[in-house]
Amino acid sequence: MIKVGINGYGTIGKRVAYAASMQDDIHVSGIVKNTPDYMAYLASRSFNIYVPDDDKIKEFEDHGIKVKGTLNDLMESSDIIVDATPEGMGMENIKIYKKKGVKAIFQGGEKSNIGDASFNAYSNYNESFKREYTRVVSCNTTALARTLYPILNDYGIENLNVTLIRRATDPNDNKKGPINAIEPSMSFPSHHADDLKTVLNLNNVYTVALKAPTTLMHVHSIEVLLKDDAKIDDIMESWLKYNRILLIEGKDNFKSTAQIMDMARELRRDRGDLYEIAIWRDSVKVIDKRLYYVQAVHQESDVIPENIDAIRSLSGIDKNESIEKTDKSLMISGGIFYGKE
Amino acid sequence: MIKVGINGYGTIGKRVAYAASMQDDIHVSGIVKNTPDYMAYLASRSFNIYVPDDDKIKEFEDHGIKVKGTLNDLMESSDIIVDATPEGMGMENIKIYKKKGVKAIFQGGEKSNIGDASFNAYSNYNESFKREYTRVVSCNTTALARTLYPILNDYGIENLNVTLIRRATDPNDNKKGPINAIEPSMSFPSHHADDLKTVLNLNNVYTVALKAPTTLMHVHSIEVLLKDDAKIDDIMESWLKYNRILLIEGKDNFKSTAQIMDMARELRRDRGDLYEIAIWRDSVKVIDKRLYYVQAVHQESDVIPENIDAIRSLSGIDKNESIEKTDKSLMISGGIFYGKE
C-alpha cells in the first residue's frame, strides 16, 4: 500500500482524497485542513484530520473536530504528500517535504520548475517514474494534453491555436467576477501555451484565454494544423482508444456546458464530477489538414485521475496498470455517449 | 435631402433613427412601431409615428400616442426604408417595398440574397451604389470586415480562423439564456464564415461561435495567416487609417468588456453606445506570418454607421464623403485611446 497524505482540502484536495480512497493499492493516511469550517467537519467523517501546526489543534477541538496531529506527523505516516494548498504555496511547502524526505505531488498553479517533471498520464507518465517531486498540470492544460496527445501521436502537429473560454470561478465561490462581462487574460499568448509544452512535445502553440461569467466548465475552441492528413473518422478512432475522452453530440441535447454537467450528475458520479474531457462530435472538422474541434472541461475534476496516476508514477508502478486501475475505480469509460450509465 | 423611413424601432431601429437625424443630408420621415409601449411613447417625442396598418391606429391613440399614418403612407413620403423588423421578416416586407417602388436597407438577420448586395462601408460600399436593395451584415460580421479589410488590403489573407464569444442577449432582454453556461453554436463553422465572404474577398475562413452569459459585448479571438509578412507596427498603421477601429490597452484598465462599455458611457455617446470596434493592443502579435488579435464588439451599435452609409450608397453619394459625414456627425474618431473625449 502506498500511504498518501493530502495537504489542503479545497476543490482539488477533497477530490483527490476521495479518489485515492477508492484505490486498492493506496491508503489515505490523512488530510491537512487549515480552518475548522463545515468542510473540515465533513472531512473528519471519512479521513484523519491533521493541522498545519500545534497552534491550530485547540481551535479545531473547540469546534468539536478531532485532530490526529500536525503536518509533521502526517508526513511521518505518508510515502507521498499530494499538495493541494492554494496556488503559489508549493514553493514554500517543498522545503518542508524535502527536509522530511517525503515525496510530493504539486498542482498546476505552481511554477513548472518546482519538481523533477510535469505530469499528464497519457503523454508523459514515465518522466515522473520513481522521481521525488512532480506537478500535475492545470485543468486546462490537462484537457489539451489529453485530447491532443492521440492526434500528435497519430498525425503529428505542425501548428496549434487554442481559444480558451474560461469559467469565471468555481461553483462554491460567490465573490469572484466577471459577473456580466468577458475578460481576456492580458497575456498573449496566455500561459497555457508554455504550460502545454511541459507535458506535450510541441513547437508552435498559440493560446488566448477569456473569462466568461459562468461557474460550470471551461470550453476550448481548437485548431490543429496536422503534419499528416486525416479524415474525421481517423481522428475519432484516435480518440476512442482513450477512456478519458468522451464524445457527445448536440442532437442528444448537449447544447451547452449546462447539459453536460447535468449528465454527470445523472450518472451519479461522485460530487456530480466529470473526469473525462467532453468533445462535441458536431464540431470535429478537417479542412486542408486543419483539424477543428470544441471541447468542454470540468475544471474541478479533470485533473483528479492524473493526481492518482502521479502517485503511482512516483512509486514506480507501470503506466498502463495505473491508468487502468484509476479508470476502473472511478468508473471512467469514455467513448461515445449514448445514454451511457 | 434623402427622406428615410424606419420600419421597426427595436435595438437597431431606434439607433438608426437617432443617427439618421444627426445627418445634414438625411431627413427621418418617420418610424413604424408595432405596439404602443413605453418605447413608442418616447419615440413620439422625436419622430412621426406610423403603424403597420389601419387596425392599429385606434390602439395607439387609446394610449395617447399620435399616429401620423400607416407603413403605406410612410413609404410615400420616403426615398428609402430602413427595415429593422425582427429577423426573417424582411423577406415578406421586401414584396411591399417593391410594389411601392421604394428602396430599402435590410439587417444582417436576413438571408444574404435578399437584396442586390450585402454592405460594409469600408470593404464594399460601391457594390450597393445606386442599387435598390442592400443588406447591412450583422454586428459580428461588420466587426470582422472592419478590422480585417485593412489587413487584407495591405498584406493579403491566406487563412482566417475566428472564435466568437457572443453575449447571450441584449441588455433590455430579461428572458434569454444561457444564465450559467457556455453554449457553442451547433453549426461548425458558424454562419459568420459564409457571411463574412459576402462583404470581404476571402477564401479560407473558419469560425466557431459560443454564447456566454453576458449582455454587454461580443469578443472575437482572431488568427490571420497573412500572405505577406508584417510587423506589429505595420499592422497598427494599417488600422490607424480607419476611424471605426479603436485601439485600447490593458494598462489603462480596459480589463474586460465592462470597462469598455463604461468608457463609452463616460464619452457621453448617445445611449452609451460604442460604434467603433475595440482591439486590445496587448493582444496584437505576429508569429511566422500569423497575426493574432482580440477585439470587442458593441452588438447594439457597431452597425449603425453602416446603416447610414448604406442610405448614401443606395442614393449614389460618394463613399469617402459619406463615411466622413457619418463619422463626424456621430463623433467617431477611432485611433489609440488615451483618455480621449
The total domain count of chain A is 2
- Mean pLDDT of chain A comes to 95
Global morphology of chain A:
globular
- Strand and helix order of chain A: EHEHEHEHEHEEHEHEEHEEHEHEEEHHE
Largest interface: A-B, 44 and 44 residues
What is the secondary structure topology, with strand pairs?
Two copies of one chain form a homodimer.
Chain A: E1 2-7, H1 11-21, E2 26-32, H2 38-44, E3 49-51, H3 55-62, E4 69-70, H4 71-76, E5 80-83, H5 90-100, E6 103-106, E7 117-119, H6 121-124, E8 133-136, H7 139-155, E9 157-167, E10 183-184, H8 192-197, E11 205-212, E12 218-226, H9 232-240, E13 245-248, H10 257-266, E14 277-280, E15 285-287, E16 290-297, H11 304-314, H12 319-329, E17 335-336
Helix pairs in contact in A: 1-11, 11-12
